[in-house]
């Protein structure tokens, strides 16, 4: 994992303390910070810049699928929420509730004005099925109105007791797609389309390999008939659920009265789906691609793909260095990469060049270009690729290149960095999934000594109390069921948990 | 205003009932609708598409000014909010307050769980000076950290008693810029930069002429030292405040402890600013550009700039019509306009072509192109410009053009529509500002019989009780002070309200 004898830029390595390392990447890379408001973070410019990139690229995929963006209310009246029993059970324990609409000084202390108490409390949306269902019930009349497909980019709130930046915060940012269909087949097709969109987005844009599959019934979204997820493996071997897609059956349609007249003139309930991804993905990117010097940001989602650091010496030569850098920035800005103009920053901040370099290393800018007087004289640039920071001797692997060569190859280099990050993560994922475990003792042993990774086992897909028993036993071992991979090999043996004939394969692992 | 003897697409004209007409544009144009949640609207795809365009173009201007996007918490602890006395006084009466974090069924009824009562209530942000100030106090140490300039795109909540879609809703979407500076001069410069950015954005992107000026002291943002606004004139002659920029002095910096060490090693409080624009601008666009057939959307912010409507007859010819339309769409998509690819939609929805045409008229698509079998045969298209829907004879002013000519001129035509909408609104604004009123009786008379428009008068810029008296008198006449235009002529006479020597000119009008 780490090269010996290198003093890394972070105060702690992955190997020493993965959790502390994660926090260090976030704080040293200026990604986010605690806000002083319980469970809520401040997303700083570099972290928010990554989110803007994710938004832009995911939004393009959502629009390409013909889904239209809308905006629905932040507040959900309790009565909307109560209509779907499983749904409300699943969320009631972690919701922010608005009860008053005014403050007043009472005994010199500002507090909710009792005279402003709401007749019906409002829930701050933890997810929007209920309020979007109400709108759909107005919009859907006939089979001609279906499928109805909408998405919103929004903040949601779930009152989490233990929070971790990006991974689990009380407030987070996400997109939620909501669709209504004439029948189960069409709704299930949309559920799988969204799942595949997320899988491909994770692999392509985030360079983050994932396993797409169905969640066991106990892990379904509250009120869903089926929940699918993409699961990514972090460098400590734990699983992160990075996106979900739900087939909701007709339960939410019945609760919100989303009905349509079919071609035969009969009233039918629509079948609905929902699917979402969030700022949690940024936590995944950090834990998949980060190293002991900070984040390594995949070029497709890096706010700046190339950062130019002029090496100034407070002497007359500086002007020529800056002019050379400006010219370089302009030429790079005209380069196209991943079908967009290359994003280049000339960093003019008045701090020392070495500090500047290390701040961009920690942030994970894919390419850092340093330019000093000698480079200007020789028509060169000094190029540092963030994906291979050190050479085998443990020295910074800066490469001196003719400026024009670097410009000509910049797009290729960025594509290569994107591909390298993906390939590295993909081999790690594949190397750390065991598929040879056939009994519970071996399953426990597979995780002994905090051995990283997942185990894919055959099971009989138990349900109800039988599944509860499996999960109870796994919990005792600090293990969880992740999903049943869509592309797993067929089951041929017996269920590792129940001894019955196995019907499919399921992934077991520790998780975030 | 209206052409006689035309049956317009909306059920009510501007002249007959401007307020009802406004609601009709919104509902018939599928822009937004009531949500069933008090004071909150659902923004539908066409309305949200306009907001996405506004976001994209405004965000580009904000980034070009070097301001970085961040994200700050939705919730503000009461203690943060209380620190700035004027600020809390200004907002305390209209805030949503979160008091519990869990629901529980009590006597069979779901309600806030008393055991989940928060020790400190949380306010849903009505604006973010306080929570961003807390972050700035962590980020600012030295004069080298200044100016610090951030922006966020977010939802905010102000508990409005009387709401109107887009213009005044309990929840709305906006951007809020927040900056900290070494001194008053630099902060005031930023305040004016943001104001000028808004003025130019309104004129250019929204084609909406505005008057930029300072708000009278009673109309300042709570806690501000100076507030500036852009004011647009709606077609009923009322004023809409469409953006504001505030110089906040050191009050917020003192409350949040935003201090820096200056070059001499002394601790100083920063001078801060804030500035914002919101979904309210969409209400302005409707009331400035709409006509009796619906919205006329300026091409720069239209989600689709050209909509192609194939005229199908359920016969074999349809295939050739659709192929011709697809080819047209492809060619238009390759056209650049306003430095972006032209946004073109081929509307394949299975509804009658005439209904389709009118739905796009009501939405305000700048150019609607109809294509039938005869057009295909002749290599033509039938073009309808939304800014001039009817000819002098009161017939739809569709123009048959050779397809290639239309494509070659499409960018120019869109630019001409943008310019025409601006020019129309600009002449209306100029024609409806009177500057010849010098006494209160004439001021009242100027508004008699609901005569539309504003009056710019000379005044002595009274303060405190004297200003209260002026505003009290104006309120009795249903009038308000809008702003003191930056580019007004100098005052030469006496104050229309107090008879003192006038120092500047101020705009008086009815308002939203």
TrEMBL record, chains A, B:
<dbReference type="Pfam" id="PF03129">
    <property type="entry name" value="HGTP_anticodon"/>
</dbReference>
<dbReference type="InterPro" id="IPR004499">
    <property type="entry name" value="Pro-tRNA-ligase_IIa_arc-type"/>
</dbReference>
<dbReference type="InterPro" id="IPR033721">
    <property type="entry name" value="ProRS_core_arch_euk"/>
</dbReference>
<protein>
    <recommendedName>
        <fullName>Proline--tRNA ligase</fullName>
        <ecNumber>6.1.1.15</ecNumber>
    </recommendedName>
</protein>
<dbReference type="Pfam" id="PF00587">
    <property type="entry name" value="tRNA-synt_2b"/>
</dbReference>
<dbReference type="InterPro" id="IPR045864">
    <property type="entry name" value="aa-tRNA-synth_II/BPL/LPL"/>
</dbReference>
<comment type="similarity">
    <text>Belongs to the class-II aminoacyl-tRNA synthetase family. ProS type 3 subfamily.</text>
</comment>
<keyword id="KW-0963">Cytoplasm</keyword>
<dbReference type="InterPro" id="IPR036621">
    <property type="entry name" value="Anticodon-bd_dom_sf"/>
</dbReference>
<keyword id="KW-0547">Nucleotide-binding</keyword>
<keyword id="KW-0436">Ligase</keyword>
<dbReference type="InterPro" id="IPR004154">
    <property type="entry name" value="Anticodon-bd"/>
</dbReference>
<dbReference type="InterPro" id="IPR016061">
    <property type="entry name" value="Pro-tRNA_ligase_II_C"/>
</dbReference>
<keyword id="KW-0067">ATP-binding</keyword>
<keyword id="KW-0648">Protein biosynthesis</keyword>
<dbReference type="InterPro" id="IPR006195">
    <property type="entry name" value="aa-tRNA-synth_II"/>
</dbReference>
<keyword id="KW-0030">Aminoacyl-tRNA synthetase</keyword>
<dbReference type="GO" id="GO:0004827">
    <property type="term" value="F:proline-tRNA ligase activity"/>
</dbReference>
<dbReference type="InterPro" id="IPR017449">
    <property type="entry name" value="Pro-tRNA_synth_II"/>
</dbReference>
<comment type="function">
    <text>Catalyzes the attachment of proline to tRNA(Pro) in a two-step reaction: proline is first activated by ATP to form Pro-AMP and then transferred to the acceptor end of tRNA(Pro).</text>
</comment>
<comment type="subunit">
    <text>Homodimer.</text>
</comment>
<dbReference type="InterPro" id="IPR002314">
    <property type="entry name" value="aa-tRNA-synt_IIb"/>
</dbReference>
<feature type="domain" description="Aminoacyl-transfer RNA synthetases class-II family profile">
    <location>
        <begin position="33"/>
        <end position="298"/>
    </location>
</feature>
């Amino acid at each position: 994992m780490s090269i010996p004898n290198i003093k890394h830029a972070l105060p702690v390595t992955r190997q020493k303390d993965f959790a502390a390392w994660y926090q260090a990447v976030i704080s040293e890379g200026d990604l986010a910070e605690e806000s002083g408001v319980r469970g809520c973070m401040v997303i700083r410019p570099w972290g928010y810049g990554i989110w803007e990139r994710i938004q832009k690229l995911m939004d393009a995929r959502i629009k390409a699928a013909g889904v239209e963006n809308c905006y629905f209310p932040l507040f959900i009246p309790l009565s909307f929420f109560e209509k779907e029993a499983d749904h409300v059970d699943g969320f009631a324990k972690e919701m922010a509730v608005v009860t008053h609409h005014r403050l007043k000084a009472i005994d010199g202390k500002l507090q909710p004005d009792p005279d402003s108490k709401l007749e019906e409390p409002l829930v701050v949306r933890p997810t929007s099925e209920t309020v979007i269902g109400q709108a759909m019930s107005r919009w859907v009349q006939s089979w001609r109105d279906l499928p109805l497909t909408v998405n919103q980019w929004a903040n949601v709130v779930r009152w989490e007791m233990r929070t971790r930046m990006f991974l689990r915060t009380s407030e987070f940012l996400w997109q939620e797609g909501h669709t209504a269909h004439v029948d189960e087949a069409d709704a299930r097709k949309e559920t799988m389309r969204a799942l595949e969109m997320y899988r491909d987005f994770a692999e392509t844009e985030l360079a983050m390999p994932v396993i797409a599959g169905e969640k066991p019934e106990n892990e379904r979204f509250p009120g869903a008939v089926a929940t699918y997820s993409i699961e990514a493996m972090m460098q400590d071997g734990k699983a992160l659920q990075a996106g979900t897609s739900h087939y909701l059956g007709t339960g939410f349609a019945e609760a919100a009265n989303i009905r349509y007249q079919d071609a035969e003139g009969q009233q039918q309930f629509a079948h609905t789906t929902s699917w979402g991804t969030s700022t949690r993905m940024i936590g995944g990117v950090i834990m998949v691609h980060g190293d002991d010097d900070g984040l390594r940001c995949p070029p497709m989602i890096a706010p700046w793909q190339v950062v130019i650091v002029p090496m100034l010496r407070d002497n007359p030569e500086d002007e020529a260095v800056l002019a050379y850098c400006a010219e370089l920035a302009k030429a790079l800005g005209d380069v196209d990469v991943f079908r967009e103009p290359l994003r280049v920053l000339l960093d003019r901040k008045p701090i020392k060049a070495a500090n500047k370099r290390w701040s961009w290393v920690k942030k994970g800018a894919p390419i850092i270009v340093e330019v000093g007087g000698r480079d200007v004289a020789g028509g060169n640039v000094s190029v540092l690729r963030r994906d291979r920071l050190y050479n085998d001797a443990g020295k910074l692997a800066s490469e001196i290149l003719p400026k024009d060569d670097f410009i000509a190859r910049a797009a290729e280099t960025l594509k290569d960095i994107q591909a390298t990050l993906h390939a590295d993560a993909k081999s790690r994922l594949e190397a750390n999934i065991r598929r040879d475990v056939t009994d519970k003792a071996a399953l426990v042993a597979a995780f002994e000594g905090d051995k990283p990774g997942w185990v894919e086992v055959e099971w009989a897909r138990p349900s109800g109390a039988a599944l509860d028993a499996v999960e109870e036993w796994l919990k005792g071992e600090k293990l969880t069921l992740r999903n049943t991979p869509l592309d797993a090999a067929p089951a041929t043996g017996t269920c590792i948990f129940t001894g019955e004939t196995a019907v499919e394969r399921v992934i077991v692992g520790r998780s975030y």
